[in-house]
User: What shape does this take?
Amino acid sequence: MLAQVGKPAPDFTLPSTKDATGPKDLGKAIALREYRGRWLVLFFYPLDFTFVCPTEITALSDRLDEFTDLDAGVLGCSTDSVFSHWAWLNTPKAQNGIQGTRYPLIADFTKETARAYGVLDESSGAAQRGLFIIDPEGTLKYAVVTADNVGRSVDETLRVLQALQAGGLCAADWKPGKALLQVA
Assistant: This one.
């Protein structure tokens, strides 16, 4: 089953960097069901140690508190291994690393989850740049896939999350505090 807005988000249980203090304790599984009862921003990126990806990963990490305040978790995913994730997480930003990232990365080494979310580039084996917002009941509410050379906007991701949480009709460029559309 492919991911479809308005339908249950494809399930996953994947090894992660969660709570790892070294390579020996890498791989603690994270499952979609762990986010039941709260929102989840799940994003896929092509590969570790690339160029646009660290800008997105660190930008989301820098603003993680804003997502937490909105009762949302953040998970990054690529088809790289947890060992590659770990190496990248321990590489300083000045050396194109993502050291200091405050949320876990999950490893879709089998590519099943990227395929289920419709972001797997079958020719390269890497995930495309996709972002998904899943509601507390596990329903996919938002999906966007962009070209690999275009990074995603944290401001827009937060705006969409807040619009979804507003529970009404949100006009283009709606922002928190603006009125929802009223239908007579």
In short: The chain has one domain: 13-166. The CA atoms of residues 41 and 133 lie 5 Å apart. Strands lie at 13-16, 28-31, 39-44, 72-78, 105-107, 129-134, 140-146.
